[in-house]
């Protein structure tokens, strides 16, 4: 199952409207798609991970799904990361398209510290949700290759691109795609096409190195 999470001000139906569901179906992939739209308040109070798990992930597992991926655009990328940081081992992969990784002040703070790998949460002025995301990403990078699989896509002209580049610097080239675009559906669809061309739903890690999904 692939769970799609839209950004702020977007509707869940927009994934289908902009052809992102068709891109999966056109490739004949055995992937069931669910588009979810958590309330914006859940992002603000940090409850999005719990709500997503309770209303989407747990019911999917009860139906027999053992391989679950999250795709998040913009604020939806934040939701995907917060879920991964809260429920270890529950999803096989993340696709982050132009994810919100923090305010400009937080991204500048990480840059000034020398990058994500050496940034310290102990001295951070970031809000709690930003800290949760960034600490999880730090641990993910430190133990790479690890689970879940992670793909990052962003437009070079995106207003959040400084944060995306900060993360991209720590990821292998095969996990990152960029387009000469902004924070818009045209760019996200191109990024999604290129990520699908890399066969993300194939098993990303050897059985010997992939932690079991519990």
Describe the structure.
It is a single chain. By secondary structure, the protein is an alpha/beta fold. It has 9 helices and 6 strands. The protein has helices at residues 14-17, 20-26, 40-44, 48-62, 75-86, 104-113, 128-142, 161-168, 185-197; strands at residues 2-5, 33-35, 69-73, 93-97, 149-155, 176-179. The protein has a 6-stranded parallel sheet with strand order 2-1-3-4-5-6, with helices on both faces. 38% of the residues are buried.
List keywords for this structure.
214 residues, six-stranded parallel β-sheet, alpha/beta, single chain, 6 strands, 42% helix
**What average pLDDT do the residues reach?**
90
Order of helices and strands: EHHEHHEHEHHEHEH
Biggest sheet strand order reads 2-1-3-4-5-6
SS-based structural class?
Answer: alpha/beta
Instruction: Give the tally of β-strands.
Output: 6
Distance between the termini: 16 Å
Strand content: 5-15%
List the helices and strands and how they pair.
Elements (H helix, E strand, L loop, with lengths): L1 E4 L8 H4 L2 H7 L6 E3 L4 H5 L3 H15 L6 E5 L1 H12 L6 E5 L6 H10 L14 H15 L6 E7 L5 H8 L7 E4 L5 H13 L17
Helix pairs in contact: 4-5, 5-7
Q: Short summary of the structure?
A:
Helix content is 42%, strand content 13%. It has 214 residues and is of the alpha/beta class. Strands 2-1-3-4-5-6 form a six-stranded parallel β-sheet, with helices on both faces.
């Amino acid at each position: 199952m692939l769970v799609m999470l839209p950004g702020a001000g977007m509707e869940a139906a927009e994934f289908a409207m902009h052809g992102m569901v068709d891109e999966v179906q056109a490739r004949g992939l055995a992937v069931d798609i669910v588009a979810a739209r958590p309330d914006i308040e859940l992002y603000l109070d940090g409850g999005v991970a719990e709500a997503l798990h309770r209303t989407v992930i747990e019911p999917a597992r009860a139906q027999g799904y053992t391989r679950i991926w999250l795709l998040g655009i913009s604020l939806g990328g934040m939701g995907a990361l917060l879920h991964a940081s809260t429920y270890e081992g529950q999803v096989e992969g993340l696709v982050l398209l132009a994810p919100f990784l923090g305010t400009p002040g937080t991204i500048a703070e990480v840059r000034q510290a020398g990058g994500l790998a050496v940034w310290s949460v102990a001295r951070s002025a970031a809000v709690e949700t930003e800290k949760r995301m960034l600490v999880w990403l730090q641990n993910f990078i430190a133990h790479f290759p690890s689970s879940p699989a992670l793909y990052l896509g962003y437009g070079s002209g995106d207003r959040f691109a400084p944060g995306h580049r900060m993360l991209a610097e720590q990821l292998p080239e095969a996990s990152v795609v960029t387009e000469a675009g902004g924070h818009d559906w045209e760019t996200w669809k191109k990024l999604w096409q290129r990520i699908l061309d890399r066969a993300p739903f194939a098993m990303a890690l050897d059985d010997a190195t992939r932690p079991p999904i519990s």
